[in-house]
Amino acid sequence: MLFRSGIIVAFFTLLSRIFGLARELFIASMFGTSYLADSINVAFKLPNLFRRIFGEGALSAVFIPIFNEKLLHSSAAARKISGEIFTLLLLTLITLVVLMEIFMPSIVLILAPGFHKNLEKFELTILVCRITIPYVIFISATALLGGILNSVKQFAAFAFAPIILSVTVIIGTLILQQYISSPIAISIAVVIAGILQILFMLYFVFKANLSFPLTINIHDSDVKKFLLNMIPATLSSGVYQLNLFISQSIASFIPGAVSILSYADRIYQFPLSIIGITFGTILLPELSKIYKINDLKKAYQLQNKAIKAGLFLSIPASLGIILLSEPIIHIIFERGAFLADDTIKTAQAISAFAIGLPAFVLSKIFMPIFYANNDTKTPLKITIYSLTINTILNLLLMLFFDHIGIALGSSIAAWYNVWLLHKYGKVYHVVPFTSKKIMIFTLKLLFSALSMSLIILIINHYYGSYFYHESLLIKSLTLSATIITGALVFFISSLILGIYQELLSKNESTI
């Protein structure tokens, strides 16, 4: 069931990331790494910050276990709590958006202090952020509806929803920019996309017979429990997202760095979303049910499978991105206002991010274990520790490596975060990295991934010039052939070493 659900989520996540990449290509070709691009990227990230806090972060983590508990009693009870929490969310977000509209100049000054040196850039960023910030209401509500559907194992709709954003941004901008400036057009298109996304999700919630009335009842014991758990969970998600914005704030002092890191993050999000977010999405509802019936053996087995699968996919992806970062960026982004120098800088950033890819994936697997046990305080403590390390590393490494140092600092902090999650997760029987089976499995994986890397290096040595051929078709085919060949070597090695068979085995050992 885990992997069948995972395939569904992974497929639609991959599809959404392809459309997301098309959206980034559209933005990159229009704005490159100019000050316009920096302003647009901040305007995109600001509502996403609160979406991840209220929508996909704290809200989902706290809401799904409560919703699942209600489902065990009756669907009516589940619908009732959904309506109460949904109404509470809307009122909170509307208030928040109004306050942010008022104080947007101060918010932008905090998020991107380096922009203040360029008055035109600073004022444009304030304007586009004011236009895009209402998107947080629609996307956070969409995320709550997605949590409801995920709880009943209907994963496809929420995984598909981001495609609506990408398509609407591209088409909406092309239409609107005939009448208004491109930065304003793309900002309005984001808000239109948010409205379409929530309507899309409401349709599937009604179709699943999980519709609910909008009611307020803060005296309900479940609502009180929700609010009690939301405080540390919100702080935890907020601190984590603050972590990302501190990196952006630091990057704002380097011309073009905000856009460079944003483009690098888009490529990096491909494997992270498909692997990490897929597991995070399906593990929380599954684990919350397992822990409710106190089946620790089954929980351990599920964790073990997820960790092995996450490592199996993230380790070769990490090495592949590092080795092929420059041709990947060159082929995907280098056109229009995006120049060869931008390719080199973006490739350097994505290579630094890729070092932390397995860590980011593992954190997506470990975090639901805490939330499934209604533990929101431990993740908060861990996130604060990680944020402190990340900020220190970003500031120190930026002095020596510019934008690369910011990405590298994030990767190192990600590994520290995983170590903390593993350490504090022992109380919930988290699979130990020091177990013999996990260590042997990881060593086999590393051997297979290094074999793949050797083949890629050989291909690059003899045929690397074709990555930069004048014909887009030839260089795209060369890159595709290299990736496919490397993947084949990895999978063949995995078969020989028994890695693939171990992943598919239904009898997962608890030792």
TrEMBL record:
InterPro entries for this protein: Lipid_II_flippase_MurJ/MviN, MurJ
- The record lists the membrane-crossing segments as 49-67, 88-112, 124-148, 155-176, 182-206, 226-246, 266-285, 306-329, 349-371, 392-418, 438-460, 472-500
Q: Where in the cell is it found?
A: Cell inner membrane; Cell membrane
- Pathway(s) per entry: Cell wall biogenesis; peptidoglycan biosynthesis
- Coiled-coil regions listed: none
Keywords, comma-separated and alphabetical: Cell inner membrane, Cell membrane, Cell shape, Cell wall biogenesis/degradation, Membrane, Peptidoglycan synthesis, Transmembrane, Transmembrane helix, Transport
Q: How does it sit in the membrane?
A: Multi-pass membrane protein
Record family assignment: Belongs to the MurJ/MviN family.
**Name of the protein in question:** Probable lipid II flippase MurJ
Protein's organism: Candidatus Trichorickettsia mobilis
Gene responsible for this protein:
murJ
